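Hi V.,

You were right to ask for the full record rather than a summary. Here it is.
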Amino acid sequence: MLLLAPMLYEIVHQAQGVTLPSFKEKLRYWGERISALILIPMAIVFYLILNKWVSGDWFRFLDYQQENWGNSFSYFATNIANIVERVYSWEIRLAIGTWLPTAVIFFVALAIILYSINRLPISYTAYSFAYLLISYSPSWLLSAPRYMLALFPLFMGLALLSQRYKRFEKVLDISLVLLLALYSIFFFQSIVF
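Predicted structure:
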């Protein structure tokens, strides 16, 4: 659903310079864009229909999240404070394997988004902020680093940083290889899950 606002912005923004001579071309042009816009909420609508069909409740998945994982939607800043607290107070395996990467990735993603503000389209920046805040809003946050992999403007921001600062590119490459090796070792020793 977060894609609706950026998509609408892009449609309106791109249409400003378009002049179409015939009514048929205008109808086709706007029909394609409105169809694309309608497809976005259709995914969630189909998911809710599936929930209703399988469980009899449109929002049963929220009950499952709460019942099985103690997970609900809460304020992202509170969740980040809880994550940072867990880094220091939980056992080392969960601190290193879950909470520390979750906290670090939030601040790294935020820094990349801030760097990208005037370098990427405004719709990408708005989408990125909303995505980041909503991804860090579940109260029992285990999957935020995985969610960040779907935030495509982050990779564009990293590419812009790498293009501008060649040393950053080398540091990033070395860091990612070392982290992959470290977390692979941790995984095989059951330190992370």
